[in-house]
Amino acid sequence: MSRSKSKNKFLIIFIIGIIAAAISVPSIPSAHAHAIITKSDPVPGQSLSAAPSKVDIYFSDPVDIRYSEIKVLDADGQQIEKNDQHYIGSDQTALSVSLPPNLKNGIYTISTKVLDQTDGHVTEDAFVFGIGQEVPKSTTTPTSNNYQEVSIPETITRFPALVGQIVVAGIASASLWLWGPVSRIPGFGRTTETTRAKIDSAMARLAVIGSIVVISSGFAMIIVQAYSINAGILDAISTKFGNMWVLRMITSSALLGVSLMLYQKTRKNPAIISKYHTATLLGISFAVLLTTSLISHGAATGQIVPLLLDFFHNVFASLWIGGIIYIAFVIMPQVKKSDQASNIISIIIPRFSILVISVLGAVVITGPFLMYLLENNLALTLASFYGRVLIVKLLLACVMIAFGAYHQYYHKEKILTPSSQGIRNPIMQLSSPNHSLSRFDKTIKIEALIGIALVATVAILVDSGLPSGEFQNQLQSVQYDVFGLAVNANQAPSGLSQTGFIENGSRIVSSISPFTTGDNDFVVSFLDSSKNQIDMESAQIKLTQTDNNIGPITIDANKTNTGTFTAKTDFGFPGHWTLRVEGVQNKQNSLNLVYSYNFFVKPGLDNLQTDIKEYKTPGNSSTPRYPVYDSERNKVWVGDTTLGSGNILDFDLATNKFTEHKIPGLNSMVYSALDSHGTLWYIDFTRKVLGNYNPDDNSNKEYPIPNQDFLTSIAIDKNDTVWITSHSDDILKFSPSTAKFDSIKLTPKSDPLDMAIDNTQGMIWIADGIGKISSLDIATSKVTDYAPQGNFTMKGPTGIILDSQTGKIYISEHEGQAVTVFDPLLKTFRKIPLDSNPDNLPYGMAFDKYHNLWVAQHTLDKISVIDTRTNQVIEKNIPTSGTWVQWLTSDSEGNIIMAEEKANALGVIDISAGPVQSTPQQAQSSIPSLGVNYTQVAAPAMTGLLVIVGLFYSKGIIDLRRATEQVKSQN
């Protein structure tokens, strides 16, 4: 009765698992293993004469619109698409998004990020199109565009699941297969029952562990899935992949239930598990394997044959690798304790070899046939990431086969030989000089570990896209791509050149010219510690636009010398980019040379577009001079220098409206600064008062300034200490906590006019009107002066600004029509001449979004713009005449705000990157041509392997018969 109830429990769990797996099969959509772009409108690289009204993207698989997006970016990197993304009709493989009307001429980037409904994989892509201008075309198409080869988190979570299900399926199948010959030998089966019971008990424990691993990995998979789509767990479960995950968790739970029942049956009293129960465990494990196939590349084709081939391929791999794990970690620990060890192993090895050889025969058929259905372009496969991982997998399989062959030989020559020579005592065999069983124990464990490594490659293959996805640009729009590749070996780089130092003193020198948006030439040189060129086989560069998360874009560089490679590419829009260079050496067993650079790409000044808008102050009467940007409130604070006005103004950049703040007693506000709490500190110029105004509650405090000289600037450090300069040889330091002023002496006869605080280094840099600059160490109050040497002089240093990116100091020369650059590291000065017009009186400065330096020119109604990398200078006209712009600031978007003192206005300069012209090039494919196709290689290989499999199968049968006869003779 008890046995019948137990069988019923197992039958119920088995039925649940099978039903769950069966339900899964009808829900297979048609797909191609990761959603890749099959076509689009506009097409990649298309140049349109008129602006399109929408963007249509068609994918190979159905995508989940909730977790998919299409972004369209202009040349400035700003998103321009409307918020109306939708499916095209009822087609869930196609997305569309509308564009605003009257788009300007230029290059536009389309970036996609979509969730595949079938396998739950998130794929990204990017390409460009042009309006009113040509799009650069490559001479050699990159090996991949923005293709995501593999998601490491997904691979990590799926790997334990694969191992766990292979372990359970393998040990169950091996248990059913291996013990038949042992039990059929008269007398021998009964003498091994105790050992067999212990083995089955260990098998039950391992089945529980494997099942727990499968379930745990399942939870990790859905967590990673939720993270990849930036959503909650329930949202991830609501996707089609999530629905499949639910079915997988049901079958996995059934697997754990069966395993726990078997474990409970054998935990206290080890006993041989019945074939019925083992078969139930095997059936449920096959159901779990089926759920894996249902989210595989085979299922993604939408055809039943690839799905079944994938499933049977997984089954055969489980029988092989799981069986080896069963022998290594279940059988051997128990058999080594038995006095029948050699006899058991002498039967187990050939019996298992027959299974493995049969499995390999099936793998030889299913593997190549499945690959043919998924991707039959051999050249494409070999050139892809998928193909490289596949090669590693095949090499590991070959190593395992070699171990198997060794074990067969070892079994024949070492374990059976003593018996044939009349040595019948197993203890004598174990203590023989060769220690055959001990060695077999070690080598079978090594083979099992190699099998687990092979499963790791399977996890990568399952998570990676097929070669056609990696080379989608070449296969679908081979004439166009985002980053063109061309050779220009004669052009010397004139833009950026950076050196990356790697191991053993080797270095990679990368030069980019002209290093701006548009076409750029790359020259990469690999040098040893003596600066000699390293003999390199190939080089690859990968570009990633980090601001918009576009990339990496991979480009194969063209070899022009022993260690020099060139490429040509187009930076679609400005911003922060990462360049990763990887070179393969010709020397065998040598490491690849790899280095990553980070840099900021900016448009050339000639391509800089500005839109200047001027906003009159209330009553058109205020005379603003010193604007201060408030990032927390997105406002600009400015004082009214009109005597007796009592006004502080704030200008809201969102609404373009002024607000007046009346301060009782305020006479004339010029300079101001914000502290870390958003409180405004200002100088009442005529009353010599330091004011503290809190915009949140309109409270105001005043502190008389002890120094009654002409006040020239104010600045606040990271500790909220207020610093004030004046026409004297000291600098004032005000502590808000004590409300006291301190004075720090500068060099005698100094005339400090402006300050720039370097909070990182704890330094204050001071522009000194007598022709020098000074540094003040905040911690020690040490003052150091710096002045140009020789014939180089600074005429009226007035404004000073710190370049936070390079650490360099820029000083405006009010009487010198120039800006001087000081390098604090090298202690050197360099002059950048500006407009030589005598009306040009350089004053305040500010950096824009592209890190260009803007310089106010006071009585000249123009503003100078300096490219800080090339020192190129252009001028932008101020629309209104007689504005008297003295000081500038910039907002969080990198736009420039100027105070137009005599025009009673603030000017806002909106800055963007204009279109760049690129020279069209002819494209060609970089996929290698092998001269043979897939079937020409696969068919002979399959035939030869099947012949070998047949020979080894015959040998396994012979070895098993021989071993059985010898064991019979001993019993």
Automatic annotation (TrEMBL):
Record has Thylakoid as a keyword: no
Spans through the membrane: 203-225, 245-264, 276-299, 311-331, 352-373, 385-406, 446-466, 934-953
MF terms in GO: copper ion binding
Domain (CopC): residue spans on this chain: 34-130
Highest taxon above the source species: Archaea
Keywords, alphabetical: Cell membrane, Copper, Membrane, Metal-binding, Signal, Transmembrane, Transmembrane helix
InterPro entries: 6-blade_b-propeller_TolB-like (IPR011042), CopC/D (IPR032694), CopC_dom (IPR007348), Cu-R_CopD_dom (IPR008457), Cu-Rt/internalin_Ig-like (IPR014755), Ig_E-set (IPR014756), WD40/YVTN_repeat-like_dom_sf (IPR015943)
Listed SUPFAM superfamilies: Calcium-dependent phosphotriesterase (SSF63829), E set domains (SSF81296), NHL repeat (SSF101898)
Residue stretches making up the Copper resistance protein D domain: 349-461
GO cellular component, one term: periplasmic space
The protein's name in its UniProt record: Putative Copper resistance family protein
Organism: Nitrosotalea sinensis
Cell compartments where the protein resides: Cell membrane
Pfam families: CopC (PF04234), CopD (PF05425)
Coarse class of the protein's main subcellular location: membrane
Record-level GO BP terms: copper ion transport; response to copper ion
Entry keyword annotation includes Transferase: no
Entry membrane topology: Multi-pass membrane protein
PANTHER family reported in the protein's UniProt record: INNER MEMBRANE PROTEIN YEBZ
